[in-house]
Amino acid sequence: MSKLVLIVEDSETCAETLQIAIELIPGVEVRSIQSSRAAISFLNDCNGEIAAVVTDLNLPQNGGAPGDGLDLIRRLRAEPRFAQVPILLISGDSDPGLSERALTQGANAFFAKPYSPAAVRRKLEQLLC
Asked: What are the sequence ranges of the domains in the chain?
């Protein structure tokens, strides 16, 4: 059975680049979603069968749903079924404290843009083993 990795990224180019890199991990299937609202809906429908989440920090706000990757991380960590799921946060934000905040709020790793898709893949491989 393949491991499902969810990419939450509103930039189609970034999502495609991540998907290509992550699909090089044997036994991994990737699904890309563009907003945190759609991610929450997808995760609620997948019965907890998710291996990892890779999310951007800045996501479009839809209908009052959480608008950024940190909110998404907090919501996932509050759910017992997602409490141990590896989460990687990616951001182009220049806030020097963002990396520490991301890790404190439940991310397993933080990558600043521009990032290496290969580095994201390597970290994800470590977390999935």
From this structure: 3-128
